[in-house]
Write a structure and sequence with these properties.
Shape: globular
CATH superfamily of the largest domain: Periplasmic binding protein-like II
Oligomer: single chain
Bound molecules: fe (iii) ion
Number of helices: 15
CATH class of the largest domain: Alpha Beta
Radius of gyration: 21 Å
């Protein structure tokens, strides 16, 4: 962990090492600000250090706090890399001028175009699919089809949704705006609201608990929450359905990373970013949180693979950031709390 005091110490060390012309000092470590918890990321950092001799120091906090800290620290930040979840958050970090573009053949080869920033300021490292989970005693999979269909009257009183305050459904609605335009997207969201069985729920797990308890029939969640819930309660009458397979595909998002604008250990940080896109790290990264590897050559973990394969929406996930503000306003207008 990196304390503010250590940060100052580190900045002082870097300054003087530079003055003394000690070249190795710069390449020997990378400082990471991460919104992903220690248990997810430390195993990969340990392998990276073992392979390269480059130490990784990291600070974990929520994305809002880390972005605020990067903004406040400006040029003096000790951070070389930011790791966070959701393209909306990564997009915001880039928009705020906190990241820098990275040219890397390795990253270009390992990460599909739609899962990284067209301006190359951030790169997806794992994929999260936002899909349908339904009650197997109340819904036949043949009744389900698309996100849009959940706005139809046949789902009245049968839908549960997570609160619109969380970025996940904001990103989904942003992508629907890009696909359908605001007017149609708003009609769909209004249809969802009209079909709600309960007020929007605090999180994905709670939404699935409501579905399992029969309080509603179907909800929208990131699949890793489904994996966690099923690991805890294997008898839950819940199953995954992959929507929009005949059309635009399942809404996906990423967790990802970028190199900070004022990185002091830029070369080492790029090495770490590339490492995170390669086989060794991709296995670990996706597996620990039951996500999907971003690198299409790496197979998902067995538990995740058992949920079946699906077509992803190929729209660039940066769209979720670009249209996030519009999505929040639209959800508000539509009465989605
Ligand atoms: Fe999550």
């Amino acid at each position: 962990m990196l304390t503010p005091r250590f940060g100052r110490y580190l900045a002082a060390m870097l300054c003087c090492a530079a003055l003394l012309g000690a070249p190795a000092a710069h390449a020997e470590q990378v400082v990471v600000y991460t919104a992903r918890i220690e248990q997810l990321i430390k195993p990969m950092f340990d392998v990276f250090t073992k392979d390269t001799g480059i130490a990784v120091k990291f600070v974990t906090d929520n994305e809002g706090a880390l972005l605020a800290r990067l903004k406040a620290e400006g040029k003096n930040t000790p951070a070389d890399m930011l790791i966070t979840v959701d393209a909306g958050n990564l997009w915001e970090a880039a928009r705020a001028g906190l990241l820098q573009p990275v040219e890397s053949k390795t990253l270009d080869a390992n990460i599909p175009t739609h899962l990284r920033d067209p301006q190359k300021q951030w790169f997806g490292l794992s994929v999260r699919a936002r899909t349908m989970v339904y009650n197997t005693q109340k819904v036949k999979p043949g009744e389900l089809s698309t996100y849009e269909d959940l706005a139809e009257p046949k789902w009245k009183g049968r839908l549960c949704l997570r609160s619109s305050k969380k970025v996940y459904n904001q990103s989904l609605v942003a992508m629907m705006i890009a696909e359908h335009g605001e007017t149609k997207a708003e009609q769909i969201v209004r249809g969802w609201v009209a079909n709600l069985a309960t007020d929007p729920l605090s999180d994905d797990t709670r939404a699935m608990e409501f579905v399992a308890a029969g309080k509603c029939d179907v909800t929208l969640v990131n699949t890793y929450y489904y994996g966690r819930l099923l690991a805890k309660n294997p008898a839950s009458p819940l199953a995954i359905f992959w929507p929009n397979q005949a059309g635009s595909g399942v809404h996906v998002n990423v967790s990802g990373a970028g190199i900070t604008k004022y990185a002091k250990n830029e070369a080492a940080a790029i090495k770490l970013l590339e490492f995170l896109s390669m086989e060794k790290a991709q296995h670990l990264y996706a597996e620990v949180n039951m996500e999907y590897p971003v690198n299409p050559r790496i197979k998902p973990d067995e538990v995740v693979a058992a949920w079946g394969s699906f077509k992803q929406n190929p729209m660039n996930v940066a769209t979720a950031g670009e249209l996030q503000a519009a999505a929040v306003k639209l959800m508000d207008r539509a009465g989605y709390r």
